[in-house]
Design a protein that fits this description.
alpha+beta; five-stranded antiparallel beta sheet; 12 strands; about 35% strand; globular
Length: about 240
């Protein structure tokens, strides 16, 4: 009975601990509609215990170029979206495109970095999304000790996650009557309240699950303590 009580307390401690950020750079949220726009964050956790992250570089696709890129201002970070000529013209949404954005870079200003056991989110608004299932966004993470981690690998044919997966957007086919500005996974421009509500939705789900876990743990603790008291009375 004492063991059950101890396990119940341990369960509360585990279930009550906040979930840490993903162990690699990822897109949050990551599901949108083909032909539409996407507002999301590059979630960047700091994985080193002896260095901080000071630079993030995202390479944008040139075979399916993005004609619109906007970044959300962040205190302590300078964002730069670079645009360049395409090797050959590409048709996007019925228009011939000869130049498009090639990269986005966030550079930390003096005194700023993603520290040990920290993560940061870098918000962007991208469009027009290509008509394919997945949009890979290879990203390089630079630490203040000079180390560079290249998150650029695609998942294998078996779906197994590689060692350094690239952030990716899953793109669903546009439904009949959908103009691409709404529907599955599409969010409004950066800075709008709906973006925060989308993030809040997943946070609420996590809180509900965590609350349920705490309730189960507390119930187990109650049974354990009651059993101990009954055994003492019998003794």
């Amino acid at each position: 009975m004492r063991t059950l009580a101890v396990l119940a307390v341990a369960g509360i401690a585990v279930l009550g601990t906040p979930t840490i950020a993903s162990a690699h750079v990822s897109a949050q949220p990551a599901e949108f509609t083909q032909g539409g726009r996407a507002t999301f964050a590059f979630r960047v956790p700091n994985e080193r215990d002896n260095a901080g992250t000071t630079k993030i570089e995202v390479t944008l696709p040139q075979d399916t170029p993005l004609t619109s890129v906007r970044t959300r201002p962040m205190t302590g970070w300078k964002a730069e979206a670079v645009k360049g000529k395409l090797d050959k013209p590409v048709t996007v949404a019925g228009k011939e495109i000869t130049e498009a954005f090639t990269s986005i870079t966030w550079t930390a200003e003096a005194g700023t970095k993603i520290g040990v056991n920290e993560y940061q989110e870098f918000y962007v608004a991208l469009g027009t999304l290509p008509e394919k299932d997945t949009l890979l966004l290879p990203t390089k993470q630079t630490y203040d000790n000079g180390e560079v981690v290249d998150w650029s690998q695609a998942a294998g044919a078996d779906g197994k996650e590689p060692e350094h997966p690239a952030p990716a957007l899953k793109l669903a086919a546009k439904k009949a009557g959908d103009d691409g500005h709404g529907g599955h996974g599409t969010t409004p421009a950066a800075g709008s309240t709906d973006t925060h509500e989308a993030s809040a939705g997943s946070d609420k789900t996590a809180r509900y699950l965590g609350g349920a876990g705490l309730a189960v743990g507390a119930l187990g603790l109650g049974f354990g303590v009651g059993a101990i008291l009954r055994s003492r009375r019998k003794a």
